[in-house]
Amino acid sequence: MIAAPDRTLLARDFFDRPVLEVAPDLLGRVLVRTDPDGSTDPIELRITEVEAYDGPNDPGSHAFRGRTARNAVMFGPPGYVYVYFTYGMWHCMNLVCGPEGRASAVLLRAGEITEGVEAARKRRLSARHDRELAKGPARLATALGVDRSLDGTDACASESSPLSLLHGTPVTSDQVLNGPRTGVSGDGGVHPWRFWITNDPTVSPYRAHTPRRRRT
């Protein structure tokens, strides 16, 4: 018999570690999206794919060149949510790692919706299968209704927080693969800091960086 996932809230010290320790350890954990006004059922997502971004040591990180209004949450306490808007279309969700002031974070790239599937489907009408609901960072944020209004949310505060992390069922090291991060260019593109659960159907396909063409 498979044991039920542990519903204990992850403590802040879980995130107060080097980002390359936290990232693979997030696989199998459960992210809960709660609507404070109760108009939407809670959605639970089992994390299956992540990417680590190591602040000042990482040319691919938003914080590589220092603090800005956009990335300020990355410099705050561990366990907070950093949400950014990209390509003028999509939001992506990250979890800040410690220590405070270090500006490292883990991008949530993909996951399996385990509760609240109907609510996620309403936000992801183009998904052909449930395994595609959160297959990719923008799809994940869309399925959960995550936008910049949730930037700075404390995911360790309580289970009633709009976003919280539960212990779940962490995977063993032999179930984890790693490789280059998706779409990262330049010196940051060489780091094998994408981690995913082996053979999980919700993991997104790898794509190398493709330079965007300027309109003529």
Folded structure, characterized:
This protein has about 220 residues and is of the alpha+beta class. Helices cover about 10% and strands about 25% of the residues. The chain is built from four helices and nine strands. Strands 1, 2, 3, 4, 5, 6, 7, 8 and 9 form a nine-stranded antiparallel beta sheet that branches. GO terms for molecular function: hydrolase activity, acting on glycosyl bonds. Keywords: DNA damage, DNA repair, Glycosidase, Hydrolase.
Could you list the spans in which at least 5 consecutive residues all have pLDDT below 50? none
What structural class do helix, strand and pairing data support? Answer: alpha+beta
Overall mean pLDDT stands at 91
Order of helices and strands: EHHEEEEEHHEEE
Strand content: 25-35%
What overall geometry do the principal axes of the alpha carbons give? globular
Family: Belongs to the DNA glycosylase MPG family.
Protein name: Putative 3-methyladenine DNA glycosylase
Keywords: DNA damage, DNA repair, Glycosidase, Hydrolase
EC number: 3.2.2.-
